[in-house]
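**Paired protein data**
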Amino acid sequence: MTDRAAAVRFKPQDLLLALAGALVLDRFEDPLPTRVFLDVLRSLGGSDEATRSALTRLTERGLLTRHQDGRVASYGLTGTSRRLLREGRERVGAAEPFHQTSSDWTLLSFSLPETQRYVRNRLRSRLSWAGFGCLRDGLWLAPGRVDLDRIVAVGAEVGGLQIDGFVASPTPGTDVARFVRRAWDLDALRREHEEFIRRWEGSLARDRDPVALFTLLGAHWIRLLRLDPVLPERYLGEDWPARRSASVHRAAFASLEPQALAAFARMVEDARARR
């Protein structure tokens, strides 16, 4: 990548999941040849070795299935990945993804043995996606009323994890803005929005591979959704760029999707014909 998006680094797994959610889910039921994934990520500057490694890791995590037909390997979505991608699609396509309507806050506390680092990382990733920020070790805060069922499900996979959550409203005189600044780096979040806007606003490079460009848009947007906790606007200062980011994404998505869908269908057809 040589454009502005190069300033934001995306892991091959992130690009593969963005590709799956945007162009594979509910469009291609059968597994796709490895060649398809290699070609897309190669257009984004990824090496074949890194892509194959990412496909293997996603398979080990139960998000992809691997199939072998002679010398040709193919990968398909699992029931788990389809469910997760459909859940993510709701937020990806939300009309106002950064507008907070609730005045409540969700507090969550958990304790986990230090030896369970893998589970800790998964739990923190799930908490970030749900809009939580860390007030201090083991105590997390999120705006609005958060459905904790999916987060608690992570804890059910291992022993020794205790999760407690409740919804609360600030008492009069509470300096909520101070808690917000402690849990989230608002300056860094503003820069993330501004970077997204700079990259995707206005004319797009029509000479780029539309599938690669659409995949990159999806990965960048998911990154922004993951980082932004959807805080009440009154704590964010003037000229907060989130609404503009949403508008820019809608325009870029509408512009790129038709070409990307058509080009990806041709890519899959060609890869299957070369088996």
About this structure: The radius of gyration is 20 Å.
